[in-house]
Predict the structure.
Amino acid sequence: MSIKRRQVLAGSAAVGAASLASGLAAPAIAANEPIKIGYLPALTGPSSSTGVGINRGSELAVKEINDAGGINGRKIELIVRDTQSDPTKAVNGAAELTKRQKVSIVWGPLNSGESLAAVPLVARDKVPELHPCWVDSLTDPAKYPMCFRNAPTNQQIGGAANTYVVDVLKLKKVAVVSDTTGYGTASVEAYVPMLKAKGADVVYSGHIDAANPDLKPDMLRMRDAGAQVVMPWSVNAGFLSRLLNTRGDMNWDIPVVGQTTLGSGQTKALLTKPEYWNKVYSNNFRNVCFTKDGKLPARASEFVARLDKANIEMGDTLLWWIALGYDGIKLIADTIKAAGDKPDQITAYWNKLSNWPGVYGNITFTPQQHNGFQDAEVVMCEVNSLKKGAFNLAPGYAS
Amino acid sequence: MFESIVSYGLAVGAIYAMTGITYNVMFSASRVFSFTAGMLGMLGGVLGAYFILQLGLPAIVGLVLVLACGALLGVVTEIVTVRPVLKNIEQHLYVLSTLAFALLVQQLTAIEWGTEAQPFPRLIPIGQGWLDQQFWLPMLACAVTIAGLEFLYRRTLVGRAFVAIAEDSYAARALGLPEQRLRLASFALAGVIGALAGFTGAEMLLAFFGNQAILNFYGFVPVALGGMGSNRGAVVGGLALGLFQQAANFLVGGIFAAVAVFVVFIVVLLLRPEGLAGGAAARRV
């Protein structure tokens, strides 16, 4: 069948009339424009191991969504600015994304140091932002009404460790130590009162110079004070490994419970004996940990199968990083699909978001609470059980 | 406790002493206080771990390469940061130029090597507990260094030329000594000693870019305590500092041990500004 010029013109007139009748003022081409998502990962520099892991999940989500036709027919365009682990570059990247690129939303930065610098800037430009950083002050519905977090806060991280020590391990005499960094000292100040409120007896607390090669004096003081468990708060693998090595050399058979760096490959590499990693429990997340039967929860298991199919490397990273990156993009895409890509639409939708099912965790926001991660999903894991980027739940959890 | 104070104290003290000697060797030849001593120590550990663990080279080859790199960096330090500012030595520009070079190298190390501490291999698997290599190797290296320097300075012609430059560079030059080449050789020697300190101490301190600041400061203390230019003073000062630091670690603990070290350091300098082994310097008027 041939199409005549008159028929085309008649058809065009009909479409135009229909458009006017339905009140569609925007040009048709706008509906096909890609949705711009600004993305601020640290892909290089000293803090990049987290960013590289999260990036694998973020890229997979974008690929899956675009391969399936995009969001309501519009492709996602991920506009990436590598922060190079540098807060200054994160600020520059954020300004470019919000002012020049006019992105619909910003995903990241992925490290707290960079987010502390970038979040106020993105908020000032009235662009919605989702980030996974733990520092408590990085969400505030009053100061940053369009900023949301899809990961736990430091309070939740410390709270999970404290709950594990007091309620699961049933240990009351606790030593809480840190290095002398801002993160370390702030953690001790925050977590000691929380432990006391739970009925624990904090028999020793203090800060240790991480450069000191010999931690035996400090460990002897903890032992003499009657500590039944040591809780070190530090992201310094050298400090943590020295603490574990000293515990092993002293034959002091007590658990060590604390932050995720306890379970990092860098910490493991510095241990003088592999068995010094036994009875060490670090923070992790229920949805991406192996349960007692050695299986991942259904959602994570299905996700790992997709990662395998996509040939995404997991041996040099952690499952929760990849899942977190995947969830970040998926949550944004689901939101734009349901509510639209305007700042007010995204914010209004998220302020009512309830139990959004992610691989990493279920997310719930309210107008007063922009921290979406649930307390019960922050757990402790056995660090010496690392297998394909995931850990076993620490002993004592029901499932 | 006593065992731990002595083993750790003497081992750490030996590393501080060698870093102090590194300062001294550079200072003697140039009257420049080069803040690259900590950098050399840091690189001794990092490069050692790189050559032996990552490239899989035999330990002895790794050691030789580390010392060669130290010598090369010493030469580069002299050419890039010292020679240009020697004409205006009164302005103390060398503080900036040497520190800037050290920070540049440290940042490059952080980017290329990473900011996490990494392991250093146990080279000689004999001895347990306080007889472990991490304790006796730095002490042995310190003893070899001080004996070697004593021999060089007192028994060889080149060594005596070093001493002549250190005593009075103007007079030495007037006698026909090649001052510039001797200064270059001194910086290369300092590079070897600094890298040796870092290499032998790395099992204890780990291969870590952050060791630079620690060694820069704690290596400076023995020089101040022992008197500038005095290698014997640096050894005594370094070992005393290590023992005191470790004793304070046991007695007062935590971050207060570092405070105790600073207090003693300031008190000694107030009482004897020229150092425990130094003499009052004559000033040209």
